[in-house]
Hints:
- 73% of the residues lie in helices and 0% in strands.
- It is mainly alpha-helical.
- It starts with a helix and ends in a 14-residue tail after the last helix.
- The site of MU-OXO-diiron (FEO) has 7 residues, from helix 1, helix 2 and helix 3.
Amino acid sequence: MNMGTKLAKAFNEQINREYYSAFLYLAMSAWLNEQDLPGAAKWMYVQYQEELVHAQGLVKYLMLRGDKVDLMPIEAPKKEWTSPLNAFEEALEHERQVTKWIDDLAKMAEEEGDRAARLFLDWYILEQVEEEANGEENVVLWGRAGDAPSGIMMLDVHYGQRGFSPDEIPHLD
Ligand code: FEO
């Protein structure tokens, strides 16, 4: 059961944004690694891996519905930030934008009367609540660490503990 051209196009645009998100976090990971912050770099690398799963979920859903997957060029992310806090602030800002895009996609599914697509997007809506909460915590913690070397070092060790366990997006396997 196809979704129809309009909704499929919007899903494809979101796939591109999720891959861009992955690129953005990979760039942040590389930059944090250059700043000798391996823990923060690892945290961002896990974030990169999560974004790939978000994109793959949307791709799989298009395939499940029999709609065309239209992969588009991925915009190059910026490569430098002024501080770890600046990178985490921009990550939060980006996640807030992603939340708006996901909400718009859900609204379109409602307008198109596509209940299956709308239900599928529930997982993404809830995921964005977690993404923003994590982002807000990051900004608070890196803001508190400020320029204090001991605070930054402790925080970096804490961030290095993040592991990757791929999200299971319902109804795809
Ligand atoms: Fe795919 Fe970080 O939202």
